[in-house]
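Hi all, long-time lurker, first post. I run a small reading group and we've been trying to get comfortable going from sequence to structure in the token notation. Rather than ask abstract questions, I figured I'd post a concrete chain and ask someone more experienced to write out its structure so we can walk through it together at our next meeting. Sequence below, copied exactly:
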Amino acid sequence: MGKTIVEKIMAKAAGKQEVFPGEYLKFGIKDTFIQVVVTLDQEQLRLLLNSAGIGCGIQQSDNCTGHCGSYSRARDKVTNRESHRLNSEWARKMGVPEENILELGRIGNCHHIAIEKAWALPGGVYLHTDTHCPTVGGVGCFGVNLSAAETSFLRTGWMWFRVPKSIKFNLTGKLQDGIMGRDVFEYILSQIGPDGAIYKVMEFTGPVMDEMSMDGVCQCVAYLFLPGEAGHCQPRPENNKLV
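-- Answer (accepted) --
Happy to help. Here is the structure in token form:
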């Protein structure tokens, strides 16, 4: 039986010939790229960055980047600049490469930057601390949101991952004017319901995806509001230039 694209990606990252849905794999920092985006207020940030062992698992790794994003200042008097300073200070302490530490003036939407800077590559595994992480599936990268497991990964440098099943959505026809990639996903969500892809990969393919802009593809595969594992699309020829 053939393998899905995500099964092939996970097998490569785990150093195995093949993997099967339901199988547990151990991924380490050398097998993945992790983007640590701090979204905490000053008090929470100081507690995290000063916790014993935080970052030990990623020390001196080129496969890590760190910056601040998604600010919330309702109960915090600290400036964005101070948050950047604290985060950058911690990243340098961990040995994160200087070019991967995004200071004020070099930062933007963290998920778009991951693609633009070729941190999320076709056929690679990309870990993130935010639920929009599957955006990188638009370039054929397996993007996984660490969520509450972030601290564990930062301490140890590895995690267990369960191989998910995949659902293929073959999109045919032609999009009407004004219909975007996000609209396509929202329509699919209305059809399968919020529990329609529990811990599964949503793999998008077909003529509609082929004709969709790169921005549209990345919007479509970002499977927000579903308890899925990832959204994914076969990489286009222009995406392979990132490798």
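A couple of things your group might point at:
Confidence is low (pLDDT under 50) at residues 70-74.
Residues 5-242 form a domain with the Aconitase; domain 3 fold (CATH 3.30.499.10).
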